Amino acid sequence: MRVLTAAALLAIAGCGAAPSQDVMSVPTVPTAAPTVPAFRLTPPAPIATPEFSAPRVRAFDLPNGVRVRSLHREGPLCSLRMRLVTEVIDKAATLAIMAPELKAGTKAHPGGGFTQAMNALGVQLDVFGSSESVDLLSTFPPEAMEAMLGLMAEALLTPTFPRPSFDAQRAYKASYSDATWKLPANLAEPALERALFGADHIYGHLTPDASQLRAVVYEDMVATHAAVLDPSRIIVAAGGTCNEVALRPAVEKAFGAMVRAPTRPAPVVAPAVPTRRLVVVDSPGALEVEIVLGVLGPTCMSTDWYTELVVNQVMRQRATDRIQHALGLTDNLWVTGLGYSAAGGTVIRASVRREKLPSLLAEVESLLAYASHADESAVADARSRILLQDAGAFERARDITAGLAGLAQYGPDGEGFVRFRTEVHDTTVARVAAYGKTYLAQSKPVAVVVGDVGAMRADLPSLGWEHVEQRDASGALVTTFR
Prior knowledge:
CATH class of the largest domain: Alpha Beta
Largest sheet: 8 strands, mixed
Order of helices and strands: EHEEEHHEEHHHHHEHEEHEEHHHHHEHEE
Strand content: 15-25%
């Protein structure tokens, strides 16, 4: 699941058949109008908002739709990121295997020749897939930019996909998935995807399990690469001390001959608001429970999305130390954001001993209510922290490319750097309160609890949630609780 940090560049980098029985309703526990607790034991010292000078983003598009963005920052290195947008391709397992295979060899540099070419430049290429894109990323001395851009374009456009490498990558991914999905902490977020978005939505199955990875066939991977390889899906972002004069001819040489498809697939639609429910996933013998709660919010980069960043920061800064102190949590309580193109929102995550689960759920719901009642000092503190993080991110070349690619993908493009700081700076207590009433009060939270169901069974119906159900790791319904 893709989550967003508060800083602009890091935030933007980034939006089975069930049994026939009905889900039994659990009576809702009546609640009085929420009080507003002093969530911080000691109010934080004010943080000075850093001065900001709007960066000069150079932007141009090739006639075939390739988008190029650059931001110069003095320093010893240049960073290049090539993003292939895959957000409408519902093949998470295939893309997870395809991404690292892009650098297994190219037509011009087959087999080990591609690695040797990078070694000759003294650079490294990272290739990774997110929920909505495949990114190729490298940082290197400025004089290597044109050569490295050419190699990265080779990997993106003309990979040879050696079958032995595919077989090894598939086996590795499936084996790794087998091992990690046995850990309660790693079961929670895939289960939340399925519960929050539903099995019929692309966001509902973005984290493939081992069986899905093993089911990927070589021919499907090759066909998927061909299906997504359109110039209108390609973004080139350069950050740091890159030669901006040489950038355009280098991009034109690499991508100018590509022909754009006559039509684009329809964008991902926003998911339906889920029913409020608690989903438990069994982890026999676990002494602690892992809880992750999600609430859907506005689409990425809408005006309300900027307010969401402040709201999440308010909850993060003003609530976590109170809840951790009250419940004696040994690990942090995390408040992050959803960052999909068609869905933003809030994710709250924590681990707690099993007997404290009811208290933790009550505290988390109180935290959601608090967001609508934050005072000026809380909002001002959140704004300052976000802008401080954002100012630091402008100095890191890799983070700059992440922000540029995100702005080109989601909009509003280069001016988004200025808009981000303007929107965050202008977020008022009234806007935070309106967000809380519109999204946190109207949306239905979905909570996933991973723990020993046998030990929790007797307590589940009394937790105060309308629906309580058990699902397995694949998302299939196991049973419901009264």
